[in-house]
Write a structure and sequence with these properties.
The protein contains one helix and nine strands, in the order αβββββββββ. With 193 residues, it is mainly beta. The protein has one domain: Porin, CATH 2.40.160.20. The protein has an eight-stranded antiparallel β-barrel with strand order 1-3-4-5-6-7-8-9.
Amino acid sequence: MYIIKILIAVIVISSVALPQLNDTTYSLSTEIGVGYSRYFTTMDYDNLNQNGFSGTVRVMWNPEHLLSLGLESGYQYLYSLDVSDYSTEFGNTNVKASMYTIPIFIVFSMKVLPNIKLSAGSGVYLLFNSGEAFGDELSSNQMSIGAHIGASYTYPINNSMAIGGELLYSYFSKLQDQTVAIQFVFAYDFLKW
């Protein structure tokens, strides 16, 4: 959580100290990211798959200042587990389990260079678990407070569109686990005034 506090301090200091790098127009933009994520956890199973798909959708308000504000949602596959002949106190069974999450975040971002942005967000992760053991299917849903920080580089295609990449670190407080995602990003300014 210290990383988020440091990032917020950098954003506040930079927005006061740095000159404006963009036009003095306002815009609403959407940013779509898709890519790969890696789940870091304390679970220790040989057959634990910690690789998955990551996708984000952000709608951002970009004022004439360096700091932008928006909402984010998306999808992140956290893990899957497939264990054959797992020994329990009730006998042996095949175990399958998986978890994915949908974030609902408030996001702040700031251009530190013309094509480079830092972002930070916080909100709620909706966690969806499913599994199978002893021939019975199991499912549960939870909520977790969490946060993420990221850095992205986008290259403008024209005045309204840009493409690039993003590195995103996420933390889940309920699980005390984290993910790192690398995403392809498409940004589009759909309204300017």
